[in-house]
Structure formats: structure tokens, C-alpha cells
Amino acid sequence: MIKVSVLYPNTPDATFDTDYFLNSHIPLMQSKLGAACKGVELELGLAGVQPGEPPSYIAMGHLHFESVGAFEAAFGPHAESLLADIPNYTNTQPVFQVSEVRI
User: Fold this and answer.
1) What is the pTM assigned to this prediction?
2) d(CA 56, CA 53)
């Protein structure tokens, strides 16, 4: 199993429209990625490690796939339209990471 993480940095002017993300972007992704996407998660940053410290990321989205190949096959044909939707819910430049899930 792999996890594709999309990390939205928490800058002083960062915005993230949770309602749009949950009600428009996620359904769009699910319709494009189909059964290859095994799960979706959204985490909203609350705080940093130290008291009063802001979170490093305003939000983090995660997608689960059986393999890197499954992700590439599902995402590749729709990458342009999915990435083009990002400005509709955030003004940040997301950071992407693909990870192997061990536990």
C-alpha cells in the first residue's frame, strides 16, 4: 500500500476552504481516480509542537493506492484537471510526497 500526501504549508496568508475541498474537490478526485483510490483522508493543522506555535501545514490530504503504478495509471490521465482545481480551495503551493505504508 502507498500513500500520496499533499501538504499545504501554513504561511501567514494561507487559506484553505475545507467545505470546497470536502464537497467539490474530493468528489472530483474520486470520480477521476475511481476504484484505484482505496481511501482518502483530510487532516487540518491545529498547532505546532510548542505551546502557541502554529502548525507547519494548514492541511494535509492523503490518498491510498495499492502501488505506485496504480497511482500513476489512475492519476496521470487526470493530473491536469485535478491540479487545476487547487486554486479553488487554497492559495498555498502544495508539497507532494509518495510514501510506502508499512503499518
Assistant:
1) 0.94
2) 9
